[in-house]
Every structure is written in C-alpha cells, then in structure tokens.
Design goal:
CATH class: Mainly Beta
Keywords: Iron, Metal-binding
Radius of gyration: 17 Å
Number of strands: 22
Strand order of the largest sheet: 1-20-17-22-15-13-14
Family: Belongs to the pirin family.
Helix content: under 10%
Mean pLDDT: 97
CATH architecture: Sandwich
Distance between the termini: 17 Å
Protein name: Pirin family protein
Cofactor: Fe cation
GO molecular function: metal ion binding
Structural class: mainly beta
Order of helices and strands: EEEEEEEEEEEEEEEEEEEEEE
CATH superfamily: Jelly Rolls
Length: 235
C-alpha cells in the first residue's frame, strides 16, 4: 500500500477579501512541485465566497470540473446556456471539452458560500462541452457510500457522468461506525467534517490521504464525520 498524507494546514492559501481559497494541489499563486496532483485529480480547492461576490466570466478547456457546495448556494452561468444555482446536497459536473466560459456568484446578501471544486484530467480531449447537476438524498449516504460521479461509459445508476475512469463518493458516518472502501484505482480521501481513521491513519477536518496499490482500506469514524472519496486512475 502506498500513501500520501496531506494535513489541512499544509494546503496553499489565498485571501482576496471576497474569496478565501485553500489549495490542496498547486493552483494559481500556490506552486509546489511536490503537490501537483494525485493521479488524474489535478485540483481540489476549498473556497469561501463572501456575500454578493463571485468569479467573473472565465474560460475552461479539456477538464472535468466538479463543484460540491458545503454551505450556502452558488449561482452559475455559462456559454452553453445554463443558468442555475447549486445548493447543499447538490453536485455540479461540467465537462469543458473543446471550451466554454462560465461565472460563479454568491447571490446571498448575508451568507458566505463554501464549496469544493475538483478538476479531473479527462481521458479524452476536445469532447463536446457538457453540463449537469443533481440533488442527492443525504439519507442514501448515511453510513454507506453514495456514488455521486462515475465514468460516462460505465455510468453508475443515479450518478453524474465524467469523461474519465473516475468515481466520486460521499459517506456520512456516525461515531464508531467502521466500514471498508474498495478501491477501483487510487483513492483520495478528503475529510470534510469530523475525525476518522483511514488505514489506521487519523484524519481531522480538511485533512486528506491518498492511497494506492491496495484493493481495500478500513475506515473508522472517531466522531460523526463527512468524507469525500475521489477514486481516479493514477496515470
């Protein structure tokens, strides 16, 4: 088994006033040659956007972009005629493919938005841009893995498709619950809330561990916890 531990306080950090952003991997002004990616997972940003602020229109190309709100709601508008708001328990998938532009904005006058944004390198470039979002029932991840995203050509029922052999799952664990996760590729375990042990390594809030070269790993919740698993090819 091969592991890499990323503690929350080792992430890159940028504070622009309207935006506070923690970067698990090299991004924008944070460049660390030891933190370029985990396999095909290229970006995992933990962003907090202030009320009535947001990202202006900007381009993307040849990247699978997944956004997961943790609190608040984020408005989205893009060049392929989507104008939506994504909220807690929803997941947004955008395959940038041949290219698109979009903007993201916090419409609330009083509440911050906290969301995770993942970039996964696609297995095929220059696909037709694609957008979708879906609300997931939190009951379906209570002490069990809920698959949010899966490969387009091997789509798991109920999941959103991406152009890569990757899977994104979430699980809400009660204290003292133990389970096992079966890896399809390499898996990156990002703890949103709580305290857990993964393969006997303790993670606290916003800690993460990447694991590969093993078929399954044990997970135990030391506290009530919310865990995100990004399972992606390693090369």
């Amino acid at each position: 088994m091969k592991t890499i531990l990323h503690k929350a306080n080792t992430r890159g950090y940028a504070n622009f006033g309207w935006l506070k952003s923690y970067h698990t991997f090299s991004f924008a002004g944070y460049q660390n040659k030891e933190r370029m990616s985990f396999g095909r997972l290229r970006v995992l940003n933990d962003d907090v956007v202030q009320p009535k602020m947001g990202f202006g229109t900007h381009p993307h190309q040849n990247m699978e972009i997944i956004s997961i709100p943790i609190s608040g709601a984020l408005s989205h508008k893009d060049s392929i005629n989507n104008k939506r708001s994504i909220e807690v328990d929803e997941v947004q998938v955008m395959s940038a493919g041949t290219g698109l532009t979009h903007s993201e904005f916090n419409d609330s006058k009083t509440k911050e938005v906290n969301f995770l944004q993942l970039w996964i390198i696609p297995e095929k470039e220059n696909v037709t841009p694609y957008y979708n979002q879906k609300k997931f029932d939190p009951i379906e991840r209570k002490n069990k893995f809920q698959i949010l995203v899966s490969p387009k050509d091997q789509l798991v029922e109920g999941a959103l498709p991406i152009n890569q052999q990757g899977y994104i799952s979430m699980i809400d664990l009660d204290k003292c619950v133990e389970t096992e996760y079966e890896l399809k590729n390499g898996a990156y375990f990002f703890l949103i809330e709580g305290e857990i042990s993964v393969a006997d390594i303790t993670l606290n809030k916003r800690d993460a561990i990447g694991i590969s070269e093993v078929k399954k790993v044990s997970i135990k919740a030391n506290k009530s916890s919310k865990l995100l698993i990004i399972d992606v090819p390693m090369n």
